[in-house]
Every structure is written in structure tokens, then in C-alpha cells.
Design goal:
Layout (H helix, E strand, L loop, with lengths): L1 H30 L3 H4 L7 H22 L2 H5 L8 E2 L8 H10 L3 H6 L1 H4 L11 H7 L2 E6 L11 E9 L12 E8 L2 E7 L2
Parallel strand pairs: 1-5
Antiparallel strand pairs: 2-3, 3-4, 4-5
Helix pairs in contact: 3-8
Length: 193
């Protein structure tokens, strides 16, 4: 009986020691919290981080268009394809690649005004590259809310331009890009114009 009592006391002491040790660790962690928590500011929310990533992706996309880099542009496209326009079906990535390599269609819209103007209905329009590179000012606006939808996590970006050729084609301002979250990255899913 005394042996059982001794084992019970040893177990109780171990539990108390474990609780004291855990309490000490928690106390140490709380007193060494990062500065932003001690100062009362909070960490950026997941949505805020997503918006920051979307803004950075949009900026890189605009730079790729401005540089006239079709290969870099393709890296931003969704593997599901991209919807160009409002009433058009999604264009498969293979077709986008084909038009860019052949220097027609989407290539003209993005990079080449002279090519774009040869297409019916686009005789007085400007390519995105020309609109962006010749604008006196540009501002990238990211959607305020990142809302989950059945098809994924979308994010909208507006490229607002001032000055340059966009003044002659105000219907092309702002440039709208709709992104989807794929495999942890923002990918271009639509460009309604």
C-alpha cells in the first residue's frame, strides 16, 4: 500500500512540475512577444496579405506589358485560360500562346497598336502597352475585399491612367484585370474591356 501511495505522490509531483514548467514557458513567450503585438498594432490579416500580393502581381503584370514582354505576360495567365472581353468565352492558354507567337489577336491588344488598328472595330484604339507607357500618371487599385466564390478566390485590379493616348479613348480607362488564386499565386483570369 505504501508503494502505491509513493507512486501516486510521484505522479502528482510530475504533473505539478509539468504544469509549472508549461506555465513558465507560456509566461516567457508572452513577455517576449514581437514588438508589433506589444505596441498594440496587429499583424496584417490574411485578406490584407492577399491584397498586398495581388497588388504586387498587378504591378509586375503592368511592367511586363509596358516592356512588351509576351513571355512574361504568359506567366501571369491562368492555366484555365483568360476571358478577354465581356461576352467572349474563356480563351485557352494554348490559344493565347498561339496568338502571341503569331502576333495577332491578343498580342495586338496588349502590345502593338499598329497591329490592333488593322482589326475591324479597333481602327482608333491603342494597345495596352501604348496606353500604359505613354500615360502621364497611372495608379493600380486593388479590390477592397477578397471574397471567396465557388470558382476560387477572385481579386480585381484597375489600372487608372491619366494623360497620353487614353484621353482619346476614355472607354479604355481604367484597364480592368480580374485575377484568380491558383496554387498559391494570383493568375490572370479575365480582362473585360
Amino acid at each position: 500500500m505504501q508503494e502505491q501511495w509513493s507512486q501516486l505522490v510521484i505522479r502528482a509531483l510530475r504533473l505539478v512540475a509539468g504544469a509549472l514548467l508549461a506555465g513558465g514557458i507560456l509566461l516567457a513567450v508572452s513577455t517576449h512577444a514581437p514588438e508589433y503585438e506589444q505596441k498594440g498594432t496587429s499583424r496584417p490579416s490574411r485578406d490584407e496579405k492577399l491584397k498586398q500580393e495581388l497588388g504586387a502581381t498587378a504591378k509586375k503584370l503592368v511592367e511586363a506589358i509596358e516592356k512588351g514582354d509576351p513571355a512574361e505576360f504568359l506567366a501571369f495567365c491562368s492555366r484555365r485560360g483568360v476571358n478577354f472581353g465581356t461576352d467572349e468565352p474563356d480563351m485557352p492558354l494554348g490559344e493565347i500562346r498561339k496568338q502571341i507567337q503569331g502576333r495577332y489577336g491578343v498580342y495586338c491588344l496588349l502590345f502593338d497598336t499598329a497591329c490592333l488598328r488593322k482589326q475591324p472595330g479597333w481602327e482608333r484604339e491603342y494597345s495596352y502597352r501604348e496606353l500604359i507607357s505613354m500615360a502621364a500618371e497611372r495608379e493600380i487599385k486593388v479590390s477592397k475585399e477578397i471574397v471567396r466564390e465557388p470558382g476560387g478566390l477572385p481579386g480585381d485590379v484597375l489600372i487608372c491612367l491619366k494623360g497620353g493616348p487614353v484621353e482619346k479613348v476614355p472607354h479604355m480607362n481604367p484597364l480592368v484585370f480580374q485575377f484568380l488564386r491558383e496554387r498559391g499565386k494570383w493568375k490572370l483570369g479575365a480582362n473585360p474591356y
